[in-house]
Amino acid sequence: MPVCRNEKGKGYFNAAYLTAEDFAEARKAWRRGICGDETTNDAKDPIIRQMLENYETAAQETRRRMNRGEDIPILFGDKPPVESEELATQYYSIRQMAIAYGTYGCKSYHSSELLKDIVYGLDWMEANMYGAEVLSDTSFRSYKVFNWWYWYIGGACPMLETVMIIEESLTREQIDRYVLPMSFMRTQMRLGNNAEMAVGQIMPCTPLALLTNDKALLQSMYLAMGKLLEKHEEGDNMRADWCCMTHGMPYNLGYGQSNLDRVAYILQILSPTKLNFPLVEKENLMQMVRYCFAPALYHGRGLQLMDGRGMQTDDDEQTAARLCASLRFLVGVFGKEEDEELFTVIRRHATPGVRRLLLGYDPDTLKEGEEPKLISMPFVSIAAYGLYKRLLLSDAAAPAPYEMAYMWRSGDSCVQHHNDVCFGLRMNSERVFGYECINHQNMDGWYTGDGHLYVYLPGQDLQYSREYWKYVDKYHIPGVTADTQEREIKSIVDCFAYFSDRSFTGGATLDGRYLTAAMDFRSFHNDHFFPEEDIGYGAGMPLHDCSLEGHKAWFFFENAVVSLGAGIRADDGFEVHTTVENRLLSGKEKVYLDGDLLQNTDFEGKLYNLMHI
Question: 295: which DSSP letter?
Answer without folding.
Answer: G
